[in-house]
Amino acid sequence: DQQVKQNSPSLSVQEGRISILNCDYTNSMFDYFLWYKKYPAEGPTFLISISSIKDKNEDGRFTVFLNKSAKHLSLHIVPSQPGDSAVYFCAASADSGYALNFGKGTSLLVTP
Amino acid sequence: DTGVSQNPRHKITKRGQNVTFRCDPISEHNRLYWYRQTLGQGPEFLTYFQNEAQLEKSRLLSDRFSAERPKGSFSTLEIQRTEQGDSAMYLCASSQGTGREKLFFGSGTQLSVL
Questions:
Q1: What is the rounded CA–CA span in Å between residue B41 and residue A111?
Q2: Tens-digit pLDDT profile for residues B55-74
Q3: Longest dimension (CA), chain A
Q4: Which of B42, B100, B108 lies closest to A103 in CB terms?
Q5: Spatial CA neighbour of A18 closest among A60, A64, A73, A76
Q6: pLDDT range class, residue B99, cuts 50, 70, 90
């Protein structure tokens, strides 16, 4: 069963505008969340993370928001750039284990 | 820091053959992970090492799969009697620390079982 869900397989955004990628989770034990970016023929690269004690974390153009009651998190990219075009994976972990549980990914295309 | 290195990048094998992949983590990292990714899916956790000790294994890791990290440095993942369903990208990741630190992934080994 998929405990981390990314329901949008793809997203297209114009350069300069905001990209919003969404992620839902079902396991209430998850308390640490990460976003990874993946280019073709490369491994995933860490982007940003958030602990469940926070509801927002910001790093440059990237902001992650966490809504624990809704079991939902989102990644905002502002402004979007063509180099941001990649597959974005949401991942979550629980304190009781070492595994990261990944969603299926959202393919972002930023057009000039 | 040369990153996580995985070899080979691609492996084509016939059903029933054994294959072995190698992962060299970032040198100072004590934690090493194996994940598997199939088309259209996110990476799925297979197993985890802290130094040379294998501390966690997923149910996905059948008896045909075995992973080692003999000296707490590089790791190998062996698949015996490969099946077509084993075709996937096998990703290795490493991290350093005792907390919930981020993982650094290698570029993976793409396995195709014919």
A1: 24
A2: 888 888 889 999 999 988 89
A3: 44
A4: B42
A5: A76
A6: low
